[in-house]
Amino acid sequence: MSRGWRYAVEIRNRNWLHPEYFAMLRQHGVAHVYNHWTRMPPITEQLELLPARECPFIVGRWLLSPGRSLEWAREQFEPFHQLREIDPAAREAMTELIRGAIEEEPRRPAYLYVGNELEGNALHTIADILESVALA
Predict the structure, then answer these.
(1) Do residues 37 and 61 lie in contact, with contact meaning Cβ atoms separated by under 8 Å?
(2) Residues 70-81, buried b or exposed e (16+ Cβ, 10 A)?
(3) How far is CA 118 from its chain centroid?
(4) Residue 30 region by backbone torsions, left for phi larger than 0, else alpha for psi between -120 and 50, else beta
(5) Which of 10, 15, 54, 80 is the most buried (most CB within 10 A)?
């Protein structure tokens, strides 16, 4: 792998979340992409398996609430102009990852991505999370 680049791996199958996977990431300085997706355990459970403080940097993706399909989310939330349904577990995990990135030493970069299909409007979700972190 080229030096100077940051690498992260996103898996979408819970059966890959085992100690050997996390050991391989650590060995190569690669981050796990914590993802909130239909067939993955909640990010809070992923954090129990690999605490964010053990990652060289933090990457999180909030795509869909567990158990939901992309088609369902699009039917319910389009045209994505407002929040339609708050996902408390997703927000809790986002807040935890952000706080960990800025409060734990050493500080690490954090890359967090939110899809419109999560709550209906990614920009409003992000604004709410940033406001809650700033107020805490």
Answers:
(1) yes
(2) eeebeeebeebe
(3) 11
(4) beta
(5) 80
Q: Which two tokens stand for residue 132?
A: 């809650």
Say which residues have a Cβ less than 8 Å from residue 11's Cβ, sequence separation at least 6: 17, 21, 33, 35, 40
Alpha helix positions (H), the chain: 19-28, 43-49, 70-77, 88-103, 116-119, 122-135
Would you list the domain boundaries of the chain? 31-135
Could you count the other beta carbons within 10 Å of the beta carbon of residue 51?
11
Q: How many CB atoms lie within 10 A of CB 102?
A: 11
Q: Within the chain, how many helices (H) and strands (E) appear?
A: 6, 4
Per-position pLDDT tens, the chain of length 136: 678 899 999 999 999 999 999 999 999 999 999 999 888 999 999 999 999 989 999 999 999 998 899 999 999 999 999 999 999 999 999 999 998 888 888 888 999 999 999 999 999 999 999 999 887 6
